[in-house]
Design brief:
- The structure holds three protein chains of three kinds.
- By secondary structure, chain A is α/β, with parallel strands linked by helices.
- Chain A is built from 25 helices and 19 strands.
- In chain A, strands 12-11-15-13-14 form a five-stranded mixed β-sheet. Chain A has a four-stranded mixed β-sheet with strand order 2-1-3-4, covered by helices on one side.
- In chain A, strand 8, helix 11 and strand 9 form a beta-alpha-beta unit.
- Chain B is α+β, with helices and mostly antiparallel strands.
- Chain B folds into two domains: 81 residues, no CATH class; 80 residues, 3-Layer(aba) Sandwich (Glutaredoxin).
- Chain B is 44% helix and 12% strand.
- Chain B contains eight helices and five strands; from the N terminus they run βαααααβααβββα.
- A four-stranded mixed β-sheet of chain B has the order 3-2-4-5, with helices on one face.
- The radius of gyration of chain B is 18 Å and the shape is elongated.
- The N and C termini of chain C lie far apart (68 Å).
- The chains are: A alpha/beta, B alpha+beta, C alpha/beta.
- At the A-B interface, helix 1, strand 11, strand 15 and helix 17 of A face helix 3 and helix 6 of B.
């Protein structure tokens, strides 16, 4: 990188890519060429910076200038002003929402201040399609170190001592997993990278693969060396075309450099990686389902034990790790187990990548040390709740996780604390919800997802989640009873207890955690027929304002179910029992006398009843 | 040149019914090139039943969808019962047995998009295109689908038309998106 | 041995034993639903899907399915504490919530494993109402699929794919929509289904049942213009008693004959008669092919394959269309019987073909399809009009209020009721080829066979091979039961690597005694073993043990057919096969 004076890093992650960062890249290059600067200034298409909210992102080195929402048409100004004249383009700088001041240096941004990037260390700093840049940032050094300085069991021991746990959800100790796979003797073993990131709202694995594919390939090779495998497979969602493309490039380049293939780095160790594609089944994130899918079968999970480490892909011992877990490995080997284990909490070491999304100012990808609080994440890194609304809950762990509230904001985050709070780490999705969100509807949304994604193999998950979803639908439609709430609880706990795989065993979490933390909202839906956020359409009521209604009869005439009563020139009333909420009356009213309320207008309903009856 | 495959003739009639579902009349016939294409895909994967999903990906890539005839030939080449191929095709949402529209509309219904109003956007598309999710318009121009998280959560709610990404779509903006492709 | 604690009892079991079996050893019966095993036959299905057999294992976060969790040393297991019982009951209620409650009119009522569990668990309400799965009912000549009643135990899928390698059924779709179905959810009739009926015999509910033809039989019996003739297959007599509470393996040949007569059949005959006839034809064909082969004729194809099993015939028509000239052309005993009844016997008693109804009682569902095949009809009139299963007969007897257990023994009518012991053993795997050997030996060597019991041909292994000494000629014989085993032998034949002279194949595990129309064994393979033993007992009891010594057979040839393989025998008793896979040429355009 050294022969250039200035580097322009354009984010090429999917988020920024979707908002034309590619064109920004092209325009910048064109402009530099036009100005004859292409020898001094390099434009690099990098992986995700994480700050997806304000993409496309352009970062300029060495001065750390951080431009947001850059349009292709801004290229000329950036080159003219910043590069040639040395003046920052202020209108493109990130503006601190609180101070409303421009922040010229990304290191000063709240979004980055609290982050600690290990797994994402190279995302946003290198061109992921150029192996030389990765190597310049120490890629494959850890592999070399392991091959030359450590035996496989020493390497496993190092990973064990680091305290690294699986980042895909359950948090199984990685070193232990490797050790089990290493101990099982077989003629063939496999290393599998689980890149079937299916949590809706989580995109950390994709960002790592797009931004730093070599870290994953290197870690797989290290794992292969440790457990005695010569073949690695990456099971990746077919919905991630950019990640697939970059992985293919990375594999080809690594093979060309002798970092994958026969006799890696001259050692007596061969390892190669191929890709397998998912085809749209969330359950394939479960390792036994993933293995069946790789074998060309339906992605149905099977009972554990036997664990994949005993009998996995094609019946051979198989070690399955998630992308983020693997991305940590090279850093641990280079910097040591002690360094890694000094970060985090007692039982959860290192960092965790979260995908911040929902009603939050700074949507994006962040990596923070374990033990950080939700408050720090949401208010300091995330910049608080969008549009000044009131925070209601944060959903962590995707469909398997739960909803945490205000009272959990100061809990240090780790595997145990999240589970204790009724949620889970999951893959690290973090969706912020505000006062406009109905918690019953959110639970229903997740259950809808689970019903779509359940494989159907075991009865509790296949039928139980369907019934949970139906019952939640009943409640949001205003037809729920107290009995339904009891049913949700019992069903939820049985599904957790009796389902076959991790999907079913965690699927009721969104229901159970909202029952725990937002029972009053359930009770309101059931007893008061009220949705406080106004999200449940069936619990909204058309009400005629006595003050504003002039009694023109227009609404009465248009009502298809004759729910409106009232004499001419007198205020009209809607009988809520007859109203089908078509909205025709509101459309017709020229005096804005009809509005939607989320409180059941008991009085007017009874009044209407007396009127219709008389 | 023609290709010999094991198919019960009754199945043909049925297949036409299947592939014609969703209001789209599709006459699927398999000319020589198509059969050769499928065979070459299967060959490329060594006709290995373990490679079924890769074969299906390639087949869908080549034909846009995987009608019954193609499943039959794949099953034949991979030496496995067609019922199992069908079992796999119907397990994975990525595989489709009906052709997508010329302009496939996909609304992201991932969580981030959901909390930012994807449901209403989807409903607007349904209304404007007069389609249910998974269907294709009778003229074959548009099809409507949901997908789970493209990872552009910063742009939520997100809609894809073909490869093009539309971010921060509001229900009001739906008409304009469709208009772009109506010409 | 490892030690574990089940319900506070110490239990010692072999390593590798499942919790389910360990508990069973300790006298604790854990309820199961999807789990299915035919012990000793290598047939097992345990997807772990129903979650009825869950137990609490101390230290485990979730409940464990006992059917597929191996017992480990030191495990502490609770099989019926409140946590377990609540989970089981809730899951059962969930399964019931997606199941029609039409038990009163369900074909499986009384035999339904789901119903039994509901009784055992004392289910009195169904609180989890919601959408129920609805599917198109699929009717085929042999099997009816009513997938509304499917509980996704996957037993049928296992049978169809792993045991039978037919591949007609597979799990399709996902989640709540998932169901077991043929490709493209087409009708079974359009699929490669062989109608072996093994899916029906393992289905725990009424999702898969036989096409019931009892009403057609009743209609025929009540028509005074019709002479109704009945034939009963060998395996029926060894299993029918189970339906009336008799211990498995009880022979009820005599009671069955009486019951049939009481039901109103005009002539009660025996398929055993035509089994003897089959041996005459098939045995002759075998000897002819063998002699030509020994004489060096390059056009003759060996091995010869038996053809009495219609499920097997369907199987090779679908899967081995290029080997259609390998099986014997002899019809199955059921069809030989029909052909002879509606010609020789009808002429004898002066009844026209159209006024005679031939009913068969079969252990088999494929027979229902077989008797409807076009090549077994004369001017549209089938040789065998209706085939009903052992189960249907039992239901019919109960329906007719016949006190089966107290019936006196009756005899079959003459002349199509007389049979040899060789015919009876057609019901067991290996029986057809043993019967053929008894006759072929004497015809080939011209000597009397002293020891008629060919023990080398008996047994329950899926594939068996034996060499039989025909006075110096070593005859290599292969036997397979279960279509998956048959496929292996057929693949050898196809590859030209088969060293057999003759192969016997039966589609169902155990042979006809394990047929798809037999009383449900519910996975108890001991029942199958008892039926096998009963069949051999019946053989032993017979005075005549060789088909060619059956006097009625001798008379039939003398009066009517001439010699085995004669022109007349050929037109009445032999058939041809059709490629079912229909090699379709997709033309280029």
């Amino acid at each position: 990188m050294s022969r250039y004076k200035i580097h322009l890093l354009v984010c090429g992650g999917t988020g920024c890519h979707s908002s034309e960062s590619n064109l920004v890249y092209e325009m910048l290059r064109d402009e530099l060429e036009r100005k004859g600067l292409e020898k001094d200034v390099q434009v690099i298409r990098t992986g995700c910076f994480g700050f997806c909210e304000k993409g496309p992102i352009l970062k300029i080195l060495p001065d750390n200038t951080f431009y947001t929402q850059v349009k292709p048409s801004d290229a000329k100004e950036i080159i003219d002003e910043h590069i040639i004249k040395g003046r920052r383009v202020y209108r493109l700088l990130y503006t601190d929402p609180e101070t409303e001041e421009h922040v010229p240096d990304s290191k000063q941004m709240d979004f980055y201040k609290k982050q600690l990037r290990i797994a994402l260390r190279n995302c946003g700093t290198i061109d992921p399609e150029n192996i030389d840049e990765s190597i310049a940032r120490d890629a494959y050094q850890a592999l070399g170190k392991a091959l030359t300085e450590y035996t496989p069991s020493e390497t496993i021991d190092l990973i064990k001592r680091s305290g690294l746990r699986g980042r895909g959800g359950a948090g199984f100790p990685t070193g232990l997993k490797w050790e089990i796979a290493a101990k099982n003797n077989a003629d063939r073993k496999y290393v599998v990278c689980n890149a079937d990131e299916g949590d809706p709202g989580a995109f950390m694995d994709r960002s790592i693969l797009e931004g730093d594919p070599h870290s994953v390939l290197e870690a797989m090779a290290i794992c292969g060396y440790c457990i005695g495998a010569t073949k690695g497979l990456i099971y990746i969602r077919a919905e991630y075309p950019l990640a697939i493309k970059r992985l293919k490039i990375a594999i080809a380049q690594a093979q060309e450099y002798g970092l994958l293939g026969e006799h890696i780095l001259g050692a007596d160790f061969s390892f190669d990686v191929t890709l397998r594609y998912g085809a749209g089944a969330f359950v394939c994130g479960e390792e036994t389902a993933l293995i069946h899918s790789m074998e060309g079968k339906r992605g149905e999970p099977s009972n554990k034990p036997p664990f994949p480490a005993q009998s996995g892909y094609l019946g051979k011992p198989t070690n399955v790790n998630n992308v983020e877990t693997l991305a940590n490995i090279p850093a641990i080997i280079l910097k040591g187990a002690e360094w890694f284990s000094s970060i985090g909490t007692e039982r959860s070491k290192g960092t965790k990548v979260f995908a911040l999304a929902g009603k939050i100012n700074n949507v994006g990808l962040i990596e923070v040390p374990m033990g950080i609080t939700l408050r720090e994440i949401i208010y300091e890194i995330g910049g608080g709740v969008k549009n000044g609304k009131k925070f209601k809950a944060v959903q962590t762990g995707g469909p398997s996780g739960g909803c945490l509230t205000e009272k959990h904001l100061d809990t240090p985050i780790d595997y145990e604390s999240l589970t204790a709070a009724g949620s889970m780490m999951g893959s690290g999705g973090m969706i912020v919800l505000d006062e406009d969100d109905c918690m019953v509807s959110v639970a229903k949304f997740y259950l809808g997802f689970i019903v779509d994604e359940s494989c159907g193999k075991c009865a509790p998950c296949r039928i139980g989640n369907k019934r949970l979803h139906e019952t939640l639908g009943k409640i949001t439609a205003g037809k729920g009873t107290q009995d339904d709430i009891e049913k949700l609880r019992n069903l939820g706990s049985v599904i957790k207890d009796a389902s076959l795989c991790g999907l079913g065993q965690t699927s009721p979490n969104p229901v159970l955690s909202t029952l725990d933390n937002f029972m009053e909202e359930y009770l309101e839906h059931v007893h008061d027929k009220k949705c406080r956020s106004g999200r449940c359409r069936d619990l909204l009521y058309y009400v005629i304002s006595k003050e504003d209604c002039i009694g023109c009869m227009a609404c009465k005439r248009v009502c298809p179910t004759h729910a409106i009563s009232g004499e001419k020139k007198e205020a009209h009333v809607i009988n809520q029992d007859v109203c089908i909420k078509c909205g025709a009356c509101m459309e017709k009213c020229q005096f804005d006398a009809i509005s939607l309320m989320n409180d059941y207008p008991r009085v007017s309903a009874t009044a209407a009843q007396t009127i219709t009856e008389s | 040149m023609s290709q010999k495959i094991n198919i019960a003739p009754e199945a043909f009639e049925y297949m036409e019914k299947v592939t014609g579902a969703g209001g789209v009349e599709v006459k699927v016939n398999l000319p020589k090139e198509k059969i050769e294409k499928i065979n070459s895909i299967c060959d490329a994967f060594g006709n290995d039943p373990g490679e079924l999903i890769n074969v299906l990906h390639e087949a869908q890539h080549a034909f846009g969808y995987i009608p019954a005839e193609i499943q039959d030939i794949v099953a034949h080449n991979l030496h496995m019962p067609v019922s199992q191929v069908y079992g796999v095709v119907t397990f994975y949402t990525f595989f489709s047995m009906t052709p997508k529209g010329e302009h496939p509309v996909s609304v992201c219904t991932g969580t981030a998009c959901y909390v930012r109003g994807a449901e209403r956007v989807l409903e607007e598309f349904r209304k404007e295109l007069q389609l249910e999710v998974g269907e294709t318009t009778p003229d074959g121009r548009f099809s409507l689908n949901c997908l789970r998280c493209v990872g552009a959560c910063g742009l939520a709610p997100v809609v894809l038309v073909g490869e093009k990404v539309y971010g921060r779509v509001s229900p009001d903006g739906v008409k304009a998106i469709i208009e772009e492709y109506k010409k | 041995m490892i030690e574990l604690t089940i319900d506070n009892k110490k239990v010692w079991v072999e390593e590798g034993t499942t919790i389910l079996k360990a508990a069973r050893n300790a006298g604790v019966e854990i309820p199961t639903l999807c789990h299915f095993e035919l012990c000793g036959m290598g047939i097992e299905s345990k997807p772990g899907g129903c979650r009825i057999c869950v137990v609490e294992v101390e230290g485990r976060r979730t409940l464990a399915p006992s059917c597929m969790t191996e017992a480990q040393h030191g495990m502490v297991i609770h099989t019926h504490n409140t946590r377990v019982l609540n989970a089981r009951t809730t899951v059962l209620k969930l399964i019931i919530s997606d199941h029609p409650l039409d038990c009163l009119v369900c074909a499986k009522s009384g035999q339904c494993e789901l119903q039994n569990l509901a009784v055992q668990f004392g289910i009195r309400s169904q609180p989890y109402e919601g959408e129920q799965s609805r599917y198109r009912k699929d009717t085929s000549p042999s099997i009816i699929r009513n997938m509304d009643k499917c509980i996704m135990c996957r037993r049928c899928e296992m049978m169809c794919n792993e045991v039978q390698t037919v591949g007609a059924l597979a799990a399709v779709n996902r989640g709540f929509m998932s169901v077991v179905a043929p490709a493209f959810e087409m009708n079974l009739e359009d699929s490669p289904c062989t109608y072996c009926g093994q899916c029906v015999s393992v289905c725990p509910t009424g999702a898969l049942t036989e096409a019931d033809h009892t009403n057609e039989v009743i209609r025929a019996l009540s028509d005074p213009a019709k002479t109704v003739v009945v034939q009963t297959a060998p395996a029926v007599r060894a299993a029918l008693g189970e339906e009336f509470g008799l211990p498995p393996g009880t022979l009820v040949t005599g009671k069955m004959a009486t019951a049939l007569r009481e039901l109103g059949f005009d002539y009660v005959f025996d398929t055993d008669f035509s089994a003897d006839l089959t041996i005459m034809e098939e045995g002759t064909e075998l000897l002819q092919r063998l002699q030509r082969h020994l004489a060096g004729d390059p056009d003759v194809r060996l091995p010869i394959l038996t053809s009495c099993c219609p499920g097997w015939v369907n199987f090779f028509e679908h899967n081995f269309p290029d080997l259609l000239d390998v099986p014997s052309t002899a019809k199955s005993p059921q069809q030989m019987f029909g052909a002879i009844a509606k010609s020789y016997f009808a002429e004898k008693i002066g009844v026209s073909r159209k006024d005679m109804i031939v009913v068969s009682i079969m252990p088999c569902l494929a027979k229902k399809y077989e008797c409807q095949r076009n090549e077994f009809k004369v001017d549209g009139n089938p040789d065998v009009d209706y085939s009903i299963s052992t189960r249907e007969l039992a239901a019919f007897i109960k329906q007719a209020n016949i006190d089966f257990l107290n019936l006196p023994d009756g005899d079959f009518d003459d002349p199509l009721g007389e049979s040899s012991g060789a015919a009876v053993i057609f019901g067991n795997t290996g029986g057809v080829i043993e019967a053929a050997c008894r006759t072929a030996y004497e015809l080939y060597t011209g000597k009397t066979l002293e020891k008629v019991d060919f023990h080398v041909l008996r047994g329950m292994e899926g594939i068996r091979s034996a060499t039989v000494d025909f006075d110096g000629l070593q005859l290599n014989i292969g036997i397979a039961h279960g279509l998956g085993n048959a496929r292996k032998l057929l693949d050898e034949v196809k590859a030209g690597k088969s060293h057999y002279h003759a192969i016997e194949i039966m589609a169902c595990p155990g042979g006809c005694i394990g047929g798809g129309g037999q009383p449900f064994h519910h996975g108890n393979s001991e029942i199958l073993n008892k039926r096998v033993a009963a069949i051999y007992t019946e053989d032993k009891r017979k005075e005549i043990r060789k088909s060619h010594e059956n006097p009625s057979i001798v008379r039939l040839y003398g009066e009517y057919l001439g010699k085995p393989g004669s022109h007349k025998a050929h037109s009445l008793l032999h058939t041809e096969y059709f490629p079912k896979s229909n090699e379709v040429w997709l033309m280029s355009q």
